Amino acid sequence: MDNINQTHISDDEYRESSIVDVPDLIVPDDEEKRLGRKSPLRTIILLSIGPLISQIVNALYGLVDSLWVAKTIGSKGVAVFGAVYVVEFISVSVSQYLCNSLSARASFLFGQQQGELCSQLYVDFIRVAFGFAILVPAIVLPITKPLVRWFGADEELTHMCFNYMIPKTCGAIINFVYMIGCGLIQAQGRSILYGAIQTCSFILNMAVFDPLLLLGLKLPIWSASFATVCSEFFPAFILLFLAFKGKIGIFPKFNMFGKKFSQQTFSALRVGFSSFVQSISLTLPVLLMQKYFNEAAKAIDIYDVAIQLWAVIEKLYQITGGICIAFSQGLLPTASYAYGAGRLNRMSKLVIHAYWLATSISTIFSLFMIALPSQIASIWSTEPDFIYWSKRLVPITFYSSVCFSSNYIAPTVLQAMKRVMASTLLSFLTLLLPIPVFSTILYFTKKDDPGRILYTYTMNDVYSFIVSLIFLIKPMKILCNSDQSASGEFVSSESSNDVNIEEYEEDNDGETNMEFDNNTSTMDVSVSRLD
């Protein structure tokens, strides 16, 4: 394909370009079997099982931690989780960014039959993780006390929050290496292993380290976050060991740490940046919203109850969000693989199945939250005020959950198609911008109603659903209008690492024009659509 500027493919040639007829184009290796061989629905279900377990486990981390803290330290300890929610999520955002960036790039490389590049990519991400591990405590710890005071916490609660964040941030490198390993196995479609690793970590946290440190040794609040670090250390070490032993599809060497960073690493960090914006967008806008919520609670003298309920609501809301994130994570590697292999019609089906599955499951969960708020809240406390306000506040958050999945599926589709700017812009418009705007409007029109502030989530979900649909119209048209037999005909060993469909236009004569960007050359392909 060197020095070819334009190729016209006839109907017969087009029919012969399927994966069955051109086995040397896309080798049916392990990644092909996991990411490209099964039906779209089955692929999404299998690849989302691991992330779904992971997200539920991550949500249960917080729930179980808060339950152990409620049992051993009391309501003041539960209030820590509500007060520190935003700053704690900064570290989580970094780990998700590293995981998603590696997963998207590695699966794309596997789709283009360049899996040998993933070894250096993995090593580079380990090096990047150490850089972030220095930055996170340097940024988070100095802002924890001022931020918690700004939320209205007293000195005792402020001090407890700071102590809780010390192990969380200083041990961040464990979490980063752990999530990088999870991103690698997810990129290869090893969904069951992914879920098993996450479950192992959760069991260690729930059944070993939390009861040992909080109940057995009766240590203060910092032991709750230290338990999480300890529970992730063993799975992280196992994944690292397996990677360097060549047991999970790559063959990194220690001398790679001395080599310069791969171009694939910069591409991965750039493409995954939208997921970082997405994660940060879930936390920074909530700063202002939580401030308004606390001030409204103070106005009617329920601050102590409200801050505990905020912690419970956010932990429960993470389950709904986690369900949607799980299907977006399950979609990302197989969609990136399909896009890298040129299987656009298959990718469209993957997107549709991921969307309806995420929407259905998150909606069912939300119905339970709406119907049984007091019963669920009573797990943490049976105090009358706590139960009364849980009935009024908990359901509001879940009213618009039917629209929630688009917040995650849409940026994932754009990210898989290498539309970096569009994905980042969508994350900004749907996650970063609306929550501060809507919460400000709701607060200043009625300053003594904390429940009113929670309607910010409802307004945001509906708005984001509409904006996401607008961003997806053109990409989905490209994917849905591609012929079903297009399964890799534009991929070759000379293909660019960043294949990007820039234009997709339909002429009056029924021809479909697709233009691909290449670092070394540009290839325009005109293909007659087969009816």
Automatic annotation (TrEMBL):
Residues 500-514 have a biased composition (Acidic residues). Its main location: membrane. The keyword Magnesium does not apply. It comes from the Eukaryota. The keyword ATP-binding does not apply. Residues 490-531 are annotated as: Disordered. Residues 515-525 have a biased composition (Polar residues). One of its GO terms (molecular function) is antiporter activity. It is a multi-pass membrane protein. InterPro entries: MATE_fam, Membrane_Transporter-Flippase. Keywords: Cell membrane, Membrane, Transmembrane, Transmembrane helix, Transport. GO terms for cellular component: plasma membrane. It is found in: Cell membrane. The chain crosses the membrane at residues 43-64, 79-100, 121-144, 164-185, 192-209, 221-244, 265-288, 316-338, 350-372, 392-410, 422-442, 454-473. Belongs to the multi antimicrobial extrusion (MATE) (TC 2.A.66.1) family. This is MatE family protein.
